[in-house]
Design a protein that fits this description.
Its main location: membrane. By secondary structure, the chain is mainly α. The chain is built from twelve helices and no strands. The two termini are 29 Å apart.
């Protein structure tokens, strides 16, 4: 637990001066303005829940990708990466703590989007299922951290992590049902969407903001958690292999 908390607090200190954190906190309300402007002057159904859920999950994912892509690089620049690799304590727990710091930013993004919807458009969205919503935000944030950890070894081996981060943003939003529900995607791609944790998290979050009772919230939360845990498990296996390789070849400072 101490390793996890050390990683969590360390990343929060870095986040205070990170331009990526600032960018996420600025773009989340801007996305809400765009989505609700379309809804305001359209004739379709009320999209307030979508305009709040989509920027929140987009903020979670983009910041998780940023942390996964820069965490190891920052450690190397600070001169702490070698010590982490040489230490007997498992590196994966510290890394997970750093990744889970994005949960707090996700909560901030949700508050921003909710306020923009109310203050600018007068759409004060009620939360009929606050327990489900809170649990969904926390579990989806943890799954985001775990899944992004799957990509960290790949970022470590590539010359430009930014290129991969951009590749895994908007296509992942569509595949994960963040921008539109999975049900409206082509039938041939819907099975692939169901193995993306965001598709379950987005559906459950939208349901928690709707009036009717939420169907099977515990089971759906477990699916999100299991998918995130699977991503984290595979990611840590790959990370240990990458670290083992750079140990053998003596190329840690060049990765």
């Amino acid at each position: 637990m101490r390793l996890f908390l050390n990683g969590f607090t360390f990343q929060l200190r870095l986040a205070r001066t990170s331009p990526d954190t600032f960018q996420v906190c600025v773009t989340a309300p801007l996305y809400t303005l765009i989505f609700l402007s379309i809804s305001e002057y359209g004739t379709g159904p009320d999209l307030t829940a979508y305009a709040i859920v989509a920027p929140t999950l987009m903020s979670l994912w983009i910041l998780a990708l940023s942390v996964a892509g820069t965490a190891l690089t920052e450690d190397r620049d600070l001169g702490t990466l070698e010590g982490q690799i040489a230490a007997p304590a498992p590196m994966g727990l510290t890394f997970l703590g750093r990744m889970c710091s994005v949960v707090l930013v996700g909560l901030v993004a949700f508050a921003e989007t909710w306020l923009v919807a109310g203050l600018v458009f007068g759409r004060w969205l009620t939360v009929p299922h606050p327990v489900v919503l809170g649990a969904c935000l926390l579990v989806t944030g943890a799954a985001t951290a775990g899944t992004a950890g799957l990509l960290s070894p790949l970022f470590m081996l590539t010359p430009s992590a930014r290129t991969l981060q951009n590749t895994f943003t908007f296509p992942f939003y569509l595949l994960g049902g963040v921008l539109v529900p999975v049900d409206v995607l082509p039938h041939w791609i819907q099975p692939a969407s169901r193995v993306v944790f965001l598709s379950w998290g987005a559906d459950l979050m939208r349901d928690s903001l709707a009036g009717p009772a939420v169907h099977n919230p515990v089971g759906r939360l477990l699916v999100v958690l299991l998918l995130g845990a699977a991503g984290y498990g595979v990611g840590m296996v790959l990370l240990n292999r990458v670290v083992g390789r750079v140990r053998r070849t003596g190329t840690l400072s060049q990765t």
